[in-house]
Amino acid sequence: MNLGKKLTAEFLGTFWLVLGGCGSAVLAANFGGDGNPLGIGFVGVALAFGLTVLTGAYAFGHISGGHFNPAVSFGLWAGGRFPTRELLPYIVAQVLGGLVAGFILMQIAKGNADFNNNPLAAGNFASNGYGALSPGGYTVAAAFLCEVVLTAFFLIVIMGSTHPRAPAGFAPIAIGLALTLIHLISIPVTNTSVNPARSTAVAFFAGSGAVSQLWLFWVAPILGGLIGGMAYKWLGRED
């Protein structure tokens, strides 16, 4: 597959992840107010992120590998599954796809007269944060550790489920369920990133608070991805 098609697939897959996952948080999580049975809530947002990765992987995985996440690209590179020459182009395509989705989501959200884009609110516009911008008020150290560990295990699941000896055709299901579980664990801590492109996609529309904390949601997931990729490279090697 030529690189242009791979990058287009990564752009579209990341677009879909941000529109579906962050869109569910912005538009549907609290629809009608607290306690309204039509709002999808915490669990619904977690499922939405998992479903976007599951469906995106089936749609685009055979073209680009279905990374949709710079931390995944770094992790697969560290695990010996991805070439160095494609790393930067993939990351650029992922970030651009996410930003376009963030822009479109903002235009949709502004169509509601009650939409309030408060840059000082935790989780504003589905953004990630720590301290005052953490949904549960978690510290920067807790947020950093959470993002590193969960991203590392995400890579382990990705590499294990796509191993040649794993059951064929089921990898997107395992990966989507893993991302759902990750959100169920960490939405209260950071609003769940494990994906620098997803964090960047909404931070620049959420305001100065999210932008000032964006560094953590690049450094921690990429570090976690590298750890997970290297760990599985060792674990899966047949000695």
Automatic annotation (TrEMBL):
Domain of life: Bacteria
Keyword Electron transport in record: no
Sites marked Involved in tetramerization or stability of the tetramer: 22
GO cellular component entries: plasma membrane
Keyword annotations of the record: Cell inner membrane, Cell membrane, Membrane, Repeat, Transmembrane, Transmembrane helix, Transport
Short motif NPA 1, span: 69-71
Chain positions of motif NPA 2: 195-197
Membrane topology listed for this record: Multi-pass membrane protein
GO terms, molecular function: water channel activity
Catalytic activity: H2O(in) = H2O(out)
Site (Selectivity filter): 49, 183, 192, 198
InterPro entries from the UniProt entry: Aquaporin-like, Aquaporin_transptr, Aquaporin_Z, MIP, MIP_CS
Bilayer-crossing regions: 38-60, 87-109, 138-158, 170-189, 215-235
Location within or outside the cell: Cell membrane
Family: Belongs to the MIP/aquaporin (TC 1.A.8) family.
Comment block on domains: Aquaporins contain two tandem repeats each containing three membrane-spanning domains and a pore-forming loop with the signature motif Asn-Pro-Ala (NPA).
UniProt cross-references to PANTHER family, sorted A to Z: AQUAPORIN TRANSPORTER, MIP17260P
Biological function: Channel that permits osmotically driven movement of water in both directions. It is involved in the osmoregulation and in the maintenance of cell turgor during volume expansion in rapidly growing cells. It mediates rapid entry or exit of water in response to abrupt changes in osmolarity.
Subunit-level organization: Homotetramer.
Protein name per Swiss-Prot or TrEMBL: Aquaporin Z
Gene: aqpZ
